[in-house]
Task: inverse folding
C-alpha cells in the first residue's frame, strides 16, 4: 500500500465517523514551551487544557512532527526518525477509551488488513479498564503487557496535558529480534499506534517519568498517533523506514552520489540511512521557516545538516550532497506537501550555503586540531584535553567524533568524560534559563485560566472603532486574580474587558495603548495589549495598565479609548510592511519571504530569507518601488474565507503564524495579498513616505531591513538636512558640494598620515639599528636587552624584530621595554633559526611579565607583555635576559 493510500485510508475512516479533518500545523508551533511540533496533539493543546472551546467535538489530522531526542538511534534501528508524519484522531470531551480502542482495532485489521495474531498491546501498569476493553475486542491476555510510566504514560515532555496510554505493536517476525513481546524487543515488536487517554495535567520534572501529576483535566479526551513511516514499512514489507516509498528515492540519490549500493550492515549502512533520513527533516524544517542558527530550532536544523554532511563525507562524497538529496525529497513528497515545492528555491539556496560554510569549518577545525595534537604530543600526554575538544565543537562546530578519530590516528585518546562534563554544564545553564521562563509563564497562565473559566469570549471592535463602552470582567495584580486596584500602588496590573477596541500584539504588530476612564472617575493608562490564552480573533485580550487616579473594580464600566495617533502610525507601518514584502519578493525572488517583523509607530523591522547582502542598487530599487506603490494610492481591503480558499486565491501565509479555520485576508492593490489580523490604512497613500534606513545580516541566510514611514520619515529627513548643513559649514562649501569637499579633505589627510607613518617607520629602523649595535655575546648566541623611550607598543614589537635582523653574528634574542600611558610594555623577538629548532619567544617574557604585574603572549618568533608596574621594568628586563641566556645556552 503506497503512502498516499495509507494517508487517505486513515482520513476517510475517521471523517466517515464524524471527525473533522484538520490540516497539519507548521513545524514551528504557536507554543512558547516547544521549539518544534513534536506530536499530533500540539495544535489541539488549548482544547485539551480547556483554554479554548473546540469548534468540533472530534478531529483527525496528519501532522508534520520533528523530534531529535533519539537522534543517535537514527540509522541504527529500523524505527527511529527525526521527522515523521503522525496520523491521529482526537476527541475533546466526546468519546473515550472504549471508542478509541474500537476505532484503532477496526482500522488496523480491516482498513489496513493487518493480521490480528501479529498485533500486541501494551497498557499502563494499573490501567485495568484498558486491558479489559482490549480483551473484550478479541485480543488474548497473552498478547497484552503492562508497562510503567516511562513507556505507557504519555506527555509532551514539558508541563501540559498527559495521561495513561495504550500502544499497538506489530510483530515483524523472528528475523527482526527475539520473542517475548514489546516488553522484550522494540525492534521486532514495533510500536505503530499510541492511544493516549488524556485525563491529567503534568508539572515540571524529567521528560518521561517521575514528574508530578497535578490533577485532572476538565474533560476526558483522546489523543492518538499512528506513525505513517512505521506502518508503511509493514504494509510495504520494507526492512526499515528508509526503504519505504517515503524515503527510498532519497536513499537512491545517496547511492548515486556514492556510486555504490547501501550495504546490509555496518557503519556504512548507518551513514547511508542518516543522510537520507536527516535530509527529509532538513527540507521540511526549511520549508516551514526554520533557518540555520546558533541556538533554538535553528541550531537543531544546523545540527541535522552538519550530521548529514559528516556522514556523507564518511561515505566518500566530497562534493555537495544536501542540494541533491533535498531536491529528491521535494520531488517525491512535494505533491503531498505543497509547501516543499513552494520553498524549493529557498531549500536549495540554504542547503548549498550551509554546506559550503561547514566545509570551511571542517577545514579550519582540522588545522586547529592538528595544532592541538602536536601540543599534546610535545607534553608527553596520551590524551587530548576535554577542553580542547569542547572548544572545537562549541566554538568552531567541529564534531567530537572527528576529534576522536583524528586523535586515535595520532595514537592519542580524548578526555571524553571532561568533554561530557563541560557539555552538561552548558546544557544546565541553558535549561535553567528556559525553566525560569517556563515557570514564570506557567504562573501567569494560572491566573489567566482562573479568569477564563467564567469569562465569555471578548468582543474585539478595534477594526471599526477606537473608542467603546466596556466593562471590566477581570483584574490581575502581582500574578493573582483580584477584584480591585488603586492609584498609588505603583505596580502594573492586567485587566480584561468584555469588549475592546485595543489590538493585541500579534503578527509583528505592537499592541495598542490608550486609556480606560470609568464612570465613577477612575483613570487608567493602558500601556500594552496582548493575548492571554492563545491567539484567536475573539480571544482572551489582556490589557497591561496602571491606575493613575481613583480605584478600579471588577464590574466597573467606562470608556476604553485607543491612542489614535499611535494607532495611525502602526497602521501606516503595517501596510508598508505588506508592500515591502511584495516588493522584496519581486526584486529578489520568491524565496525572500518574510521570516519575522516588528511593526511600531511609523517604524518597521522586516526579516526575510536571503543569502547575500543587498547591493546599493537593490536597496534603491526596493525603496523606490515601495514609494511608487504608495503614491499610486492602491485600495486596502480585508475579507474573510477559509484558509484553503484564501491560499487558493494566492494569499501568503507567514511562517510560524497560527491561523484559525476562518482567516482574514488583507489585499493592497493587485500586488499584495496576505493572511493578516492586523490593522491597516484604508488607502496606500496614507502610508506617507517610505524611507529605508538599513539592511543587515541577522544570521545565516537571514537579512533584516529597517525602515520609517509617515511622520518619522519627515523627522529623519529634517535631521539629515541639518547635519548636512552643519558639515557644509565646517567645510566652507555649499551643501551640494559637501561630498566632494569632504573626499578631498580625507584624501589629503590620508596622504599626510601615510607620510607620518613612513617617517615613524624610518625612525624605528634607525633606533633598531642603534640598539643592535649594543648586542652582547653569551654562550650560544647574542642578547639585546634595553629600555627605550617614546615608543608605542606596536613600534616596540617592530623595533625588537628589526634589531634581531640587524645582527648577523648568529642566533639573537632582543628584549625591549618601555613605559607607555603609565604601563609597562615588553617585547621579545628571536632569530628564525631558533624558531626552526622548536623555540618560541613567549617563555622568555613569562617571569618578566609577572615582575611588572601583568601577563603576555605570542607565538613563534615574537611575543609581548604588559603590566601596571612600570617602575619594575629594569627588574623585568634583567629576568628576561637571564631566561634568554639560558635558552641560548641550551639551544
Result:
Amino acid at each position: 500500500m503506497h503512502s498516499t493510500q495509507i494517508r487517505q485510508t486513515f482520513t476517510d475512516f475517521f471523517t466517515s465517523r464524524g471527525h473533522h479533518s484538520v490540516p497539519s500545523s507548521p513545524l514551528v508551533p504557536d507554543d512558547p514551551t516547544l521549539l518544534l511540533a513534536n506530536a499530533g496533539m500540539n495544535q489541539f493543546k488549548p482544547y485539551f487544557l480547556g483554554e479554548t472551546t473546540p469548534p468540533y467535538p472530534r478531529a483527525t489530522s496528519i501532522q508534520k512532527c520533528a523530534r531529535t531526542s533519539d537522534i543517535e538511534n537514527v540509522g541504527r534501528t529500523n524505527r527511529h526518525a527525526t521527522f515523521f508524519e503522525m496520523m491521529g484522531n482526537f476527541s475533546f470531551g466526546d468519546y473515550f477509551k472504549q471508542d478509541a480502542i474500537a476505532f484503532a482495532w477496526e482500522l488496523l485489521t480491516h482498513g489496513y488488513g493487518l493480521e490480528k495474531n501479529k498485533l500486541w498491546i501494551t497498557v499502563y501498569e494499573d490501567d485495568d479498564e484498558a486491558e479489559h476493553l482490549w480483551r473484550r475486542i478479541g485480543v488474548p491476555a497473552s498478547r497484552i503487557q503492562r508497562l510503567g510510566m516511562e513507556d505507557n504514560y504519555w506527555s509532551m515532555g514539558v508541563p501540559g496535558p498527559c495521561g495513561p496510554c495504550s500502544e499497538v505493536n506489530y510483530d515483524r517476525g523472528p528475523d527482526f529480534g527475539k520473542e517475548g513481546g514489546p516488553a522484550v524487543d522494540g525492534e521486532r515488536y514495533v510500536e505503530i499506534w499510541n492511544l493516549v487517554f488524556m485525563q491529567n495535567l503534568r508539572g515540571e520534572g524529567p521528560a518521561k517519568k517521575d514528574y508530578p501529576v497535578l490533577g485532572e483535566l476538565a474533560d476526558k479526551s483522546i489523543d492518538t498517533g499512528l506513525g505513517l513511516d512505521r506502518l508503511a514499512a509493514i504494509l510495504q514489507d520494507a526492512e526499515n523506514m528508509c526503504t519505504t516509498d517515503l524515503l527510498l528515492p532519497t536513499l537512491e540519490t545517496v547511492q548515486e552520489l556514492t556510486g555504490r549500493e547501501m550495504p546490509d550492515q555496518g557503519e556504512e549502512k548507518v551513514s547511508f540511512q542518516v543522510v537520507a533520513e536527516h535530509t527529509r527533516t532538513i527540507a521540511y524544517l526549511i520549508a516551514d521557516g526554520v533557518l540555520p542558527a546558533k541556538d533554538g530550532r535553528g541550531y537543531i536544523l544546523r545540527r541535522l545538516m552538519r550530521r548529514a554532511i559528516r556522514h556523507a563525507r564518511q561515505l566518500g562524497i566530497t562534493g555537495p550532497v544536501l542540494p541533491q538529496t533535498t531536491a529528491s525529497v521535494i520531488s517525491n513528497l512535494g505533491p503531498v506537501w505543497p509547501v516543499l515545492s513552494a520553498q524549493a528555491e529557498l531549500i536549495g539556496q540554504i542547503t548549498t550555503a550551509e554546506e559550503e560554510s561547514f566545509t570551511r569549518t571542517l577545514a579550519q577545525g582540522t588545522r586547529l586540531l592538528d595544532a592541538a595534537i602536536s601540543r599534546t604530543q610535545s607534553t608527553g600526554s596520551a590524551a587530548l584535553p576535554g577542553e580542547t575538544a569542547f572548544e572545537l565543537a562549541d566554538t568552531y562546530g567541529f564534531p567530537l567524533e572527528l576529534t576522536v578519530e583524528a586523535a586515535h590516528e595520532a595514537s592519542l585518546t580524548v578526555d571524553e568524560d571532561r568533554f561530557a562534563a563541560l557539555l552538561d554544564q552548558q546544557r544546565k545553564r541553558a535549561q535553567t534559563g528556559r525553566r525560569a521562563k517556563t515557570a514564570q509563564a506557567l504562573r501567569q497562565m494560572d491566573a489567566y485560566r482562573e479568569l477564563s473559566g467564567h469569562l465569555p469570549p471578548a468582543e474585539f471592535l478595534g477594526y471599526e472603532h477606537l473608542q467603546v463602552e466596556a466593562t471590566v470582567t477581570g483584574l490581575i495584580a502581582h500574578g493573582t486574580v483580584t477584584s480591585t486596584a488603586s492609584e498609588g500602588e505603583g505596580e502594573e496590573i492586567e485587566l480584561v474587558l468584555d469588549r475592546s477596541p485595543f489590538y493585541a500584539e500579534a503578527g509583528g504588530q505592537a499592541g495598542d495603548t490608550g486609556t480606560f476612564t470609568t464612570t465613577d472617575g477612575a483613570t487608567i493608562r493602558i500601556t500594552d495589549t496582548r493575548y492571554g490564552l492563545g491567539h484567536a480573533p475573539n480571544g482572551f485580550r489582556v490589557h497591561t495598565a496602571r491606575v493613575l487616579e481613583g480605584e478600579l473594580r471588577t464590574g466597573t464600566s467606562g470608556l476604553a479609548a485607543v491612542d489614535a495617533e499611535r494607532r495611525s502610525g502602526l497602521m501606516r507601518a503595517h501596510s508598508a510592511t505588506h508592500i515591502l514584502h511584495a516588493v522584496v519578493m519581486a526584486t529578489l525572488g520568491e524565496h525572500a519571504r518574510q521570516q519575522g517583523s516588528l511593526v511600531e509607530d511609523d517604524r518597521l523591522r522586516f526579516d526575510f530569507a536571503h543569502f547575500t547582502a543587498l547591493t546599493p542598487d537593490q536597496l534603491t530599487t526596493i525603496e523606490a518601488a515601495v514609494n511608487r506603490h504608495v503614491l499610486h494610492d492602491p485600495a486596502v481591503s480585508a475579507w474573510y474565507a477559509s484558509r484553503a480558499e484564501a491560499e487558493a486565491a494566492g494569499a501568503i501565509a507567514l511562517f510560524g503564524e497560527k491561523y484559525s479555520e476562518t482567516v482574514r485576508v488583507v489585499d493592497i492593490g493587485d500586488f499584495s495579498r496576505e493572511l493578516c489580523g492586523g490593522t491597516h490604512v484604508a488607502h496606500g497613500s496614507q502610508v506617507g513616505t517610505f524611507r529605508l534606513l538599513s539592511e543587515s545580516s541577522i544570521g545565516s541566510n537571514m537579512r533584516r531591513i529597517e525602515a520609517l514611514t509617515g511622520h518619522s520619515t519627515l523627522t529623519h529627513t529634517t535631521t539629515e538636512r541639518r547635519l548636512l548643513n552643519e558639515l557644509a559649514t565646517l567645510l566652507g562649501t555649499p551643501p551640494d558640494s559637501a561630498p566632494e569637499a569632504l573626499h578631498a579633505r580625507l584624501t589629503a589627510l590620508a596622504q599626510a598620515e601615510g607620510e607620518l607613518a613612513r617617517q615613524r617607520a624610518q625612525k624605528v629602523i634607525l633606533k633598531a639599528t642603534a640598539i643592535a649595535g649594543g648586542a652582547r655575546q653569551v654562550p650560544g648566541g647574542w642578547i639585546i636587552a634595553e629600555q627605550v623611550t617614546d615608543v608605542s607598543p606596536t613600534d616596540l614589537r617592530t623595533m625588537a624584530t628589526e634589531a634581531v635582523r640587524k645582527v648577523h653574528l648568529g642566533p639573537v634574542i632582543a628584549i625591549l621595554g618601555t613605559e607607555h600611558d603609565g604601563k609597562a610594555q615588553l617585547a621579545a623577538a628571536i632569530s628564525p633559526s631558533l624558531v626552526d629548532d622548536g623555540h618560541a619567544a613567549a617563555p622568555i617574557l613569562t617571569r618578566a611579565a609577572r615582575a611588572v604585574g601583568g601577563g603576555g603572549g605570542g607565538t613563534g618568533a615574537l611575543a609581548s607583555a604588559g603590566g601596571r608596574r612600570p617602575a619594575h621594568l629594569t627588574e623585568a628586563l634583567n629576568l628576561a635576559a637571564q631566561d634568554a641566556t639560558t635558552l641560548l645556552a641550551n639551544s
Observations:
- The CA atoms of residues 239 and 857 lie 58 Å apart.
- Residues 437-441 have pLDDT under 50 and may be disordered.
- The longest strand covers residues 213-227.
